[in-house]
């Protein structure tokens, strides 16, 4: 029995994500929560002929608590989408409070759940969830994940395009490390399962890296004010959730990229720190998954000179993003104390 929960289930990411989770045969119960429309989304999904029983709640009458009760995996796409001209800092100011409140609900109702954070900016919202859990004494770094799968999905697709064969996109695997915004997204193209053409010009390589790093901007611009990357993000979120669920149910050897706390694996993070040349509290890299969540943080391995430069550029921005998330929670609890 697996209960999956989507917090923000009526939104642009939430609805297609909920649909994909309803279609997952391993999900036996699906809990949906949002501030509007959730009962309707749940009713619609409940007609689909797959095993998961679906329930949807709104905030009144302890809707969040009802949704989270018995949750095994909680996915958080809640928040506002990025609009043209909006920076990730602007986005943070709005979404940070939403994520903090949802994290409080999880801490008090489903503290043992595996929590998958999609809400942007992930580099800061994951530390927010961690700090809230610490306040309530329920923090387990092995069970908290920032979903960076979309960066890997984009890298696979864009490399397949360069190779001239989109049918390869499901097979191409490119490790993407660092974080989940702009320059913190570092594709290790030298480790691609399908090497780039040997004669690829530097300008083409740089353009590919930039497209992977700023693919979200491409979608925001194309939607012309109508939203951000929702469908591709829902696909990526469902892909990662499926891997977590399979691992929780005992499947061995599952490896997936995720933005996690270095506390999740002391030996793996020590090797990672040595490669980076300094310690970061959170970093995205390939992670081996198991029944307790993070089994192992996998080091970067051999990287090219160009990739080393990208990693060096990512570190200061990552540090700033992490500090922003931690400080947000510290400021919030100056005026309120957590209550179980």
Automatic annotation (TrEMBL):
<dbReference type="Pfam" id="PF02866">
    <property type="entry name" value="Ldh_1_C"/>
</dbReference>
<dbReference type="GO" id="GO:0006099">
    <property type="term" value="P:tricarboxylic acid cycle"/>
</dbReference>
<keyword id="KW-0816">Tricarboxylic acid cycle</keyword>
<feature type="domain" description="Lactate/malate dehydrogenase N-terminal">
    <location>
        <begin position="3"/>
        <end position="146"/>
    </location>
</feature>
<feature type="binding site">
    <location>
        <position position="154"/>
    </location>
    <ligand>
        <name>substrate</name>
    </ligand>
</feature>
<feature type="binding site">
    <location>
        <position position="233"/>
    </location>
    <ligand>
        <name>NAD(+)</name>
    </ligand>
</feature>
<dbReference type="InterPro" id="IPR001557">
    <property type="entry name" value="L-lactate/malate_DH"/>
</dbReference>
<feature type="binding site">
    <location>
        <position position="88"/>
    </location>
    <ligand>
        <name>substrate</name>
    </ligand>
</feature>
<protein>
    <recommendedName>
        <fullName>Malate dehydrogenase</fullName>
        <ecNumber>1.1.1.37</ecNumber>
    </recommendedName>
</protein>
<feature type="binding site">
    <location>
        <begin position="8"/>
        <end position="14"/>
    </location>
    <ligand>
        <name>NAD(+)</name>
    </ligand>
</feature>
<feature type="binding site">
    <location>
        <position position="95"/>
    </location>
    <ligand>
        <name>NAD(+)</name>
    </ligand>
</feature>
<feature type="domain" description="Lactate/malate dehydrogenase C-terminal">
    <location>
        <begin position="148"/>
        <end position="329"/>
    </location>
</feature>
<dbReference type="InterPro" id="IPR015955">
    <property type="entry name" value="Lactate_DH/Glyco_Ohase_4_C"/>
</dbReference>
<feature type="active site" description="Proton acceptor">
    <location>
        <position position="180"/>
    </location>
</feature>
<comment type="subunit">
    <text>Homodimer.</text>
</comment>
<feature type="binding site">
    <location>
        <begin position="118"/>
        <end position="120"/>
    </location>
    <ligand>
        <name>NAD(+)</name>
    </ligand>
</feature>
<dbReference type="GO" id="GO:0005829">
    <property type="term" value="C:cytosol"/>
</dbReference>
<feature type="binding site">
    <location>
        <position position="82"/>
    </location>
    <ligand>
        <name>substrate</name>
    </ligand>
</feature>
<dbReference type="InterPro" id="IPR022383">
    <property type="entry name" value="Lactate/malate_DH_C"/>
</dbReference>
<keyword id="KW-0520">NAD</keyword>
<feature type="binding site">
    <location>
        <position position="120"/>
    </location>
    <ligand>
        <name>substrate</name>
    </ligand>
</feature>
<dbReference type="InterPro" id="IPR010097">
    <property type="entry name" value="Malate_DH_type1"/>
</dbReference>
<keyword id="KW-0560">Oxidoreductase</keyword>
<dbReference type="Pfam" id="PF00056">
    <property type="entry name" value="Ldh_1_N"/>
</dbReference>
<dbReference type="InterPro" id="IPR001236">
    <property type="entry name" value="Lactate/malate_DH_N"/>
</dbReference>
<dbReference type="InterPro" id="IPR001252">
    <property type="entry name" value="Malate_DH_AS"/>
</dbReference>
<dbReference type="InterPro" id="IPR036291">
    <property type="entry name" value="NAD(P)-bd_dom_sf"/>
</dbReference>
<dbReference type="GO" id="GO:0030060">
    <property type="term" value="F:L-malate dehydrogenase (NAD+) activity"/>
</dbReference>
<comment type="similarity">
    <text>Belongs to the LDH/MDH superfamily. MDH type 1 family.</text>
</comment>
<feature type="binding site">
    <location>
        <position position="34"/>
    </location>
    <ligand>
        <name>NAD(+)</name>
    </ligand>
</feature>
<dbReference type="GO" id="GO:0006108">
    <property type="term" value="P:malate metabolic process"/>
</dbReference>
